[in-house]
Design goal:
By secondary structure, the protein is α/β, with parallel strands linked by helices. It contains seven helices and five strands; from the N terminus they run E-H-E-H-E-H-H-E-H-E-H-H. Strand 4 (107-110), helix 5 and strand 5 (137-138) form a beta-alpha-beta unit. The chain has helices at 12-22, 41-58, 70-77, 84-102, 120-134, 147-156, 168-175, and strands at 4-9, 28-33, 61-64, 107-110, 137-138. The protein has one domain (4-175): HUPs (Rossmann fold, 3-Layer(aba) Sandwich). Helix 1 crosses helix 6 and helix 4 packs parallel to helix 5. It starts with a strand and ends with a helix.
C-alpha cells in the first residue's frame, strides 16, 4: 500500500507485531507516542524510553508528545471510572487523527488494535468515525492475530514489558487484592 501512515504507539511491546507488518507496506511510516493515561510518571518514562531504544535500533522515527497531561485524563474520567477506557481510547485516537490531518498523512492507526485486552470493536468504530470527521483514512487491521508472536518478539528484543494497561485504575485492578 502506498502513502504515509501515522501510527499511534501505546508502548514498544505492542508495537512489535504491527511494525513487522506495516514497515514495508507504506512509503512513509511515523510513530506517535501519546499516552497521558499512564501512571505513575516513572512508568510513563519506562515505556517512553523503551520505545526510544527500539526506535533507534529499528530506524522508526517517532514523535513524542511533549506534555504529560495526566491531570487532564483524570479530570475527564473521575466519577466515570467504569467507562474510563472509552475516553482514554477515543482521546488518544482523536489526537492522532488530528496530527495525521495537520501533517498531511494519508492514514492513521494504532497499536491498541494489537492487544487482546483492549476494546477492539470500539477502537475500530472510533477510528472509522474519526476518518469521516477529519478526512484521514483509518487503517484497520486486527493485529491480535499476532499477539503471541508480538510477545515473543518483545522478549527477543529484551524490551521492558509492563504488566498493566497504564492508568492508575488499571494498576489498582492488576495489583490490589
Amino acid at each position: 500500500m502506498n502513502g504515509k501512515l501515522l501510527l499511534h504507539i501505546c508502548c514498544a511491546p505492542c508495537l512489535m507485531y504491527p511494525y513487522k507488518l506495516l514497515k514495508d507496506e507504506f512509503d512513509v511510516m511515523l510513530g506517535y507516542f501519546y499516552n497521558p493515561n499512564i501512571h505513575p510518571y516513572t512508568e510513563y518514562l519506562k515505556r517512553q524510553n523503551t520505545l526510544k531504544d527500539f526506535s533507534e535500533h529499528s530506524g522508526l522515527k517517532v514523535i513524542y508528545e511533549k506534555e504529560y497531561k495526566m491531570e487532564e485524563f483524570l479530570r475527564s474520567v473521575v466519577f466515570r471510572e467504569e467507562n474510563r477506557c472509552y475516553y482514554c481510547l477515543s482521546s488518544r485516537l482523536e489526537k492522532t487523527a488530528l496530527l495525521a490531518r495537520s501533517s498531511k498523512f494519508d492514514y492513521f492507526t494504532t497499536t491498541l488494535l494489537y492487544s487482546k485486552h483492549q476494546k477492539h470493536d470500539f477502537i475500530k468504530e472510533t477510528g472509522l468515525n474519526l476518518e469521516k470527521k477529519y478526512g484521514v483514512k483509518f487503517y484497520y487491521s486486527d493485529f491480535r492475530a499476532g499477539y503471541k508472536e508480538g510477545i515473543e518478539l518483545s522478549h527477543a528484543n529484551n524490551l521492558y514489558r509492563q504488566n498493566y494497561c497504564g492508568c492508575i485504575y488499571s494498576e489498582k485492578e492488576r495489583f490490589y487484592k
